[in-house]
Design brief:
This protein has 238 residues and is mostly beta strands. It is built from three helices and twelve strands; from the N terminus they run αβββββββββαβββα. Strands 7-8-9-10-11-1-2-3-4-5-6-12 form a twelve-stranded mixed sheet.
């Protein structure tokens, strides 16, 4: 998956920023998923999420940075750790053995309002097990695209990395309804080809080591640069 595609998908699909109103996760464990940019995408991006108490960790690339599994050449080398209680996000840059910390934004009531042109998400009645979890399909329109989301309430609340201005209608819907997406598909029109797909592939409900939610002891703290410089250091080739 090209870097530009990665950013477009991350912008709409990842769980990278928690809100001050969030509470402890009902779910503890690890969730693996893949992101693809349409059916012709031959290089899907693998991601994993770990949740424990009031903390969440996201690793992206061919393997999470806590794993000894070898990453592919173009895989992103890093992770994000979010702390509900401290209202902080910590970004790990594995190649440099460094980390950065930033504040998490507050979720305001207007953040969950639909934008002009968005259509309310409604259940279709279709249900399916995804990665062993019962999911229900909702379909709506957000940012000019048809969005099909298969959701569950077993996994806790979905929270987007976007601020109020960048947040899509489907993301606000997930947050408001305390739902977690197990599959998300976007299309230009009803029945059209897929533009992007996020799908959970495995769910591990085992207890997580608390050390995974802290910067490694041999990492050095960096002062926060602008977002562009931060991403250059995080994503190879950016």
């Amino acid at each position: 998956m090209k870097t530009s595609r990665l950013f477009r998908l991350l912008g709409g699909l990842c769980l990278a920023v928690l809100t001050a109103a969030s509470t402890a996760f009902a779910f503890e464990g690890k969730v693996d998923m893949t992101l693809t940019n349409g059916p012709k995408d031959k290089d899907p991006m693998a991601m994993s999420y770990r949740m424990k108490g009031e903390k969440m960790r996201m690793d992206f690339g061919g393997a999470d940075s806590s794993s000894k599994k070898k990453k592919k050449k173009n895989d992103a080398a890093g992770a994000m750790i979010m702390d509900f209680k401290k209202k902080e996000m910590t970004m790990l840059i594995d190649e440099e053995k460094m980390y950065m910390v930033r504040e998490l934004p507050e979720l305001k009531p207007e953040d969950t309002k639909r934008k002009k042109g968005d259509e309310e998400f409604k259940p279709t009645g279709r249900k399916e097990k995804i990665a062993g979890v019962e999911a229900e399909e909702y379909v709506g329109k957000a940012d000019g695209r048809i969005v099909e989301v298969w959701v569950t309430k077993e996994m806790g609340r979905y929270v987007s990395q976007q601020g109020a201005e960048g947040k899509g209608g489907w993301e606000a819907f997930m947050e408001k309804e305390n739902m977690f997406p197990l599959r998300t598909i976007t299309r230009k029109k009803v029945g059209g080809p897929e533009e992007s797909r996020m799908e959970v592939t495995a769910i591990d409900r085992s207890k997580q080591d608390g050390k995974l939610f802290e910067p490694p002891s041999d990492y050095t703290k960096m002062e926060m640069p602008n977002m562009g410089d931060m991403l250059k250091g995080l994503i190879p080739g950016r």
